[in-house]
Amino acid sequence: MVFFARMDFSQGNLFGYIEDLQELTIIERPVRRSLKTPEEIERLTVDEELNDIERAVYLLSSGQDIQGTSVVANLPVLMRQNPAETLRRVLPKIREVLHVAGVEMQLTAAVSFLTVLQDESVSIHTYSHSFLHIILQNLEHRDAGVSNAWLETLLAVIEALPKETIRHEILNPLVSKAQISQSLQSRLVSCKIMGKLAYKFEAHIVKREILPLVKSLCQDVEYEVRTCMCRQLEHIAQGIGTELTKTVVLPELVELARDEGSSVRLAAFETIVNLLDMFDADDRSQTVLPLVKSFCEKSFKADESILVSLSFHLGKLCNGLYGIFTPEQHLRFLEFYKKLSTLGLQQENGHNDNQLQLQTLEQEKKYISVRKNCAYNFPAMIVFVDPKNFHLELYSIFFCLCHDPEVPVRYTMAISFYEVAKLLNSGVYTIHKELVTLLQDESLEVLDALVGHLPEILELMTTNGGENSGAESKLLSIPDLIPALTTAEQRAATSLKWRTHEKLLQKYACLPHIISSDQIYYRFLHRMLTIILTNNVLPVQKAAARTLCVYLRYNRKQEQRHEVIQKLIEQLGQGKSYWNRLRFLDTCEFIMELFSKSFFCKYFFLPVLELTHDPVANVRMKLCYLLPKVKSTLKIPSDKHLLQQLELCIRKLLCQEKDKDVLTIVKRTVLELDRMDISLDAFQKRFYENDLLDQEKERQEHLLLEMEQLEKEKQQSEGRSTNVNDKIFEKKRRDNKTSSVLAKSMTLSVSGSSSGTSAGKEDKKSKLVRSQSFSTQALHPKYSNIDKCPNKSSATGYTSSVSGMGKSCMLSFTDDTFRTRSTGNSGNATFPSSSSLTTSRNSFNSADQKNNGNKEGQSRKMSIF
């Protein structure tokens, strides 16, 4: 109704609408004409009673081209079902049809023949007898695409054929096919076949029967043949060995490198670079190095065609010839690389103002490719100059490439950034600004390339901080890094590339190992919760939920943890949108994966069960799928009351559920729950590994509490000592002020200062006593909330270890002491091993053992927060 209300049916506009309708009619007419007539349908109809072989023969004999192509495409299936009849009846028909077949059927046949070989439907002897002749007949097809397709099939067949078959069916005819009197296509095919044959025969056979043909083709009158044969010399050299390569192949390459055709020279250069490992030091210094220097000199003058290839292979070339370079040559090649890295940017930067010329589009593309190749080779050039000389020799080039105006160049730098960081090792702090620059790049392609190894890069940035390595260097490197990380996430969130956003959120799970808990809480954690609540892409929401759980896992403050848990329950679990409640269940899965069973049972078990009353069937259905995992978090008898709650909810679902799909899943879930075994408080053999892992998680969660308590004690003691020192200083200042006026007042002031000093000493003594008796005053109230430990001796030993630490141990608990490092690129959190706990656990004295021996009767379930 709205559409018609807005249309103007005045006389002027009415004719416009009629013309539009006529155009639509014209567009539709070809569709009607393309429909098949009854006669055509009759010709395309096949008797349904025919079997597969008979139908294939019929369609190849009297069907249309599209039907014959379908039969050829189905040839591998026919060979698997009935190989004997297919070879006897269908393959001869295909051979006849291929003589007059079009391009589509030819390409389909080449692929089908290769598939039959790979499927091994028949023996290699049968295959060579039945299929090889057809392949060889179609090699010289007039269409280049068809000829290449059959050639690829033949090269794959050569790998499987026996030597005698190759000699008689392929090598002997090849002698005549490679002659100058044959067609260009025939000689090109011969070049590629000889490159493959070099691997199949011994060196002396290759030398006697193949190398004469190779030399002939290297001197062919057509540059296409010389180029093709030159590119096959690499394969031939690897097949004949080092000696023959030096005496036969290298002279041919030297001659081809001076060829009049630019494509031939380019092929010769690339082949020489790829064969560097096969040349000895003399060949490299006397033959290869002069050629390379000649290529470099001509690349900017007479032969720009080789410039792109030269920039691509320059890293491999410099490192391959490193041992024979003089210092002067080393410097010359380095300067050449620097010149290539800024090629095409001089005019933009204000250089060469007197030679301003408009560059063609082709030149610009070439220069961009050259700079992109330089970015690709940058790690190799670091090795070439030695990482110790990076800042002096290559940093300026690194800066230019990271700030290049073209996206492909910056994209390549982002991909290779991790390799550069690994090579620099302790000097990685010098490229921190470039990391920030790439994180803030305007192109999301650059950001996506950088994010792939972001955890490893940040790990190197924080562990190798130069001279001031450690916590101080981390804090110094963070201020501009954190805004860059937040900006990158926001840019990915506002784009349409949700996969980049998902990948970024997954990698951000490494941040607890990089920056402090407070920085994560204020800059990242709430952002993850916002993404879960507002983003519309499910994979992004799940990635944010998992990363949020990792942040919660490593959060160091009890108050912040309680706040996040409360928000998860209220805004997700009890949210108005059913979509949020579904995400709450996803988050609970991550909680069960990352946290201990006791943690989940304490904070999330009952909120999850409340969703059994959810008004939306999809939420109840997802909950039913999750119930087996929920039940696996229980331990009997300490969680018996939670098991009763679970059983009660299931009974209500069985009795009250009205949705038939949910009810079906409930019944299936009940059967699965009945088959499940619940783990006990004591260790069982079948659950031993899981119980150990859960106990380790529980220890780490409890350790966070202890570290928080130690930090509070440390802050309190430092605050009190600061107050005492301030009072003493103020007292002395006032006393010094009045000392020049009254001697009596000075005496009183001195006595007052002494009393203040003695008071300070008494205060220090009291703090020392409080520190030494930390286990009885600080730990015991906290442990009074513990119900039952999964391993009594371990819990007691751990408590005794903490109680025996004292003040010096309290001061040693820094943020990085128990922070683990990320070892993969998936963003998954990794937990610290128990080795650090074992060391401290074995260091307590016997007196502490006796004092804490009465804790062995405590229950398993720990009050984590």
From TrEMBL:
Cellular compartments per GO CC: cytosol; protein serine/threonine phosphatase complex
Record's keyword annotation contains Transmembrane: no
Cellular compartment(s): Cytoplasm
Compositional bias annotation for Low complexity: 745-758, 833-846
The UniProt record lists the keyword Phosphoprotein: yes
PROSITE patterns, per database record: HEAT_REPEAT (PS50077)
Keywords, ordered alphabetically: Coiled coil, Cytoplasm, Phosphoprotein, Repeat
Comp. bias intervals (Basic and acidic residues): 727-737
Function: Putative regulatory subunit of serine/threonine-protein phosphatase 4.
Protein name from the UniProt record: Serine/threonine-protein phosphatase 4 regulatory subunit 4
Organism: Aythya fuligula
